[in-house]
Amino acid sequence: MSEQYIYPVKPEIARHAHITEALYQADYQRSINDPEGFWAEQAQRFLHWRAPWHTVLDYDYPSAYIKWFQGGRLNVSENCLDRHLADKGDQLAIIWEGDDPNQQRRVTYKQLHAEVCRFANALKAQGVGKGDHVCIYLPMIPEAAVAMLACTRIGAVHSVVFAGFSAEALKDRILDANCHYLICSDEGFRGGKTIPIKATVDKAAEQCPGLSKIIVVQRSGNPVNWQPGRDMWYHELLAIADTESEPEAMDAEDPLFILYTSGSTGKPKGVQHTTGGYLLYAAMTHKYIFDYQPGEIYWCTADVGWITGHSYVLYGPLCNGATTLMFEGVPTYPAADRCWQIVDKYQVNIFYTAPTAIRALMAQGDDFVASSDRSSLRILGSVGEPINSEAWEWYYHVVGQTRCPIVDTWWQTETGGILITPLPGATELKPGSATRPFFGAKPEILDAQGQVLTGVAEGVLTLSFPWPGQARTVYGDHQRFIDTYFKAYPGYYFTGDGARRDEDGYFWITGRVDDVINVSGHRLGTAEIESALDLHEHVAESAVVGYPHDIKGQGIYAYVTLIVGTVPSEELKRELIAHVRAEIGAIAAPDRIQFAQALPKTRSGKIMRRILRKVAANELDTLGDTTTLADPAVVDDIIANRLNR
Ligand code: WTA
């Protein structure tokens, strides 16, 4: 890594870029020296306010009290739609490309506005009001955007659940967020397959007595079960809905949405974001980090079920009046050239995806890329996990033909938007480094004792000052919010990631330092997968760790001890995998299951995950000290039967 090649800023990009190096330096300093002045200015520039704020920022990290733009009033859908109508009404807001390459839809700002207004009225007619919680379980179709924006129009709080989650996982999220309303589709399409959606909702709903209304978008048209009184068709509600809808003037700190994400322990947390700060941060980061220029076609491949879909498929781009592309399918269907076919078809200028997709496409060979033109591409982005330099170089040279800067963007569900990233017209690139902080972000590297490390250093990544996009709480459990993010290092927001800062002040994210793993860019808690396994009748105990995986970044390795008398078999492994799919979803299915006689534990009974991680990675010479184990022989059995050699 010492002979690191640095990719200079491209003059042709810098010439027209929103942010150049001189501007970055000046504005970054200003954002740190006078954060309130800086953010007040941005809030004026990026958003339309119904009423001005009286206090830019009020915060106290020890109690996790964070308030931005208090007193200010605004509406998210008005910012994303109404204010663009005058000069961009006929411009495309959403380009939708179906799983089937022959299906597409083009939605202008005028059309999107009209449908959002009508659906907002439809929701109201069903009793949904300001502050109500609405669960959205939809595939990647324009109606997902309509549903989210309609909620924001009337001040309802959405909780989008990724449509790949199982009925069980959906049920947990409906109950935790106390949702009385749900929006779904009949079915979905992905990679040529039909995905049940309503059937999954029906199953979840059996255990959600509070769920009183289910609105169903017709996507496949295939028959679905129907419960009259509870279930209703989206298109039927729209047909009778009024077209005039006055946006609700929300307080800047009113909740905007809840989004579940995994942590080290316990069930997924409902991370809550609020209205003003979140929207400002999503819009500003989108414009500057992707250097979005008027008229450009922007494509982020994330699903709206994740934070990347919220901030960078929907809210950021629409707030900026951009054209955002929504893709229903997968990068390898019908073939591994699908992304580049779409880029050519719509002349996409900015393309934002995850390293796991880049690695998967890289593995298919360059021919799938070479068969397309891609000359429309100007900026490439990466998100969700560390990008290895090999994948970075391939993305840069093969996909981008050395013409497009790559923005490797580091952030989290809890941060609302990107915090560490290059800026296309300002930042010299080092493959694998997320480079430097965005405006207002104050990353600090701490050692295990919480001492701030300066200069070249490696430790845990924290942020020492709030930014507007920061999450405000964990829904229903503020104490958990405090404990997870603000307790370990008093005065700092703890990210759960490790990082290194090099001699140029560039940040290199080294991965999670807790029990969260990142599988194909999806964030999972090992504890969640263990709880799912432990529910199985033949499982006595389990321990799940991540291990290096060429395509997925990390794979899921489960050590399982069986109830006495159970015969281990390949059949049982398959059954356990199916069981985890049913409990959580396909994304959590273990890649490897090793049956073990026992799990290595300390004398006090704690599972020694460090050892299990090393064995899973086949790093046997660095196992470390095993003398503190209650029974060191357990490790010999585990090593002898390991699956990764
Ligand atoms: C990881 C996704 C390295 C990190 C936006 C973080 C990254 C977690 C990067 C959040 C990156 C995200 N380089 N690691 N550019 N971006 N991560 O909440 O471990 O799904 O803590 O948000 O993904 O995942 P989440």
TrEMBL record:
Keywords: Acetylation, ATP-binding, Ligase, Magnesium, Metal-binding, Nucleotide-binding
Catalysed reaction equations from the record: acetate + ATP + CoA = acetyl-CoA + AMP + diphosphate
GO CC, any one term: cytosol
Pfam family, one: AMP-binding
All copies of domain AMP-dependent synthetase/ligase, residue ranges: 82-463
Residues reported in the UniProt entry to bind ATP: G384, E385, P386, D408, T409, W410, W411, Q412, T413, D497, R512, R523
Domain Acetyl-coenzyme A synthetase N-terminal: 24-80
SUPFAM superfamilies listed in its UniProt record: Acetyl-CoA synthetase-like
UniProt-listed InterPro entries: Ac_CoA_lig, ACAS_N, AMP-bd_C, AMP-bd_C_sf, AMP-binding_CS, AMP-dep_synth/lig_dom, ANL_N_sf
Binding site for CoA: R190, G191, G192, K193, T308, S520, R581
Gene3D superfamilies: 3.30.300.30, N-terminal domain of ligase-like
Biological process according to GO: acetyl-CoA biosynthetic process from acetate
Location of the AMP-binding enzyme C-terminal domain: 528-606
EC number(s) from the headed UniProt entry: 6.2.1.1
Binding-site residues for Mg(2+), renumbered to this chain: H536, V539
PTM section of the record: Acetylated. Deacetylation by the SIR2-homolog deacetylase activates the enzyme.
Alphabetized GO MF terms: acetate-CoA ligase activity; AMP binding; ATP binding; metal ion binding
Needed cofactors: Mg(2+)
N6-acetyllysine modifications at: K606
UniProt xrefs under PANTHER family: ACETYL-COENZYME A SYNTHETASE, ACETYL-COENZYME A SYNTHETASE 1
Alphabetical list of HAMAP family matching this protein: Ac_CoA_synth
Family: Belongs to the ATP-dependent AMP-binding enzyme family.
Role summary: Catalyzes the conversion of acetate into acetyl-CoA (AcCoA), an essential intermediate at the junction of anabolic and catabolic pathways. AcsA undergoes a two-step reaction. In the first half reaction, AcsA combines acetate with ATP to form acetyl-adenylate (AcAMP) intermediate. In the second half reaction, it can then transfer the acetyl group from AcAMP to the sulfhydryl group of CoA, forming the product AcCoA.
Official protein name in the record: Acetyl-coenzyme A synthetase
Gene name of the encoded protein: acsA
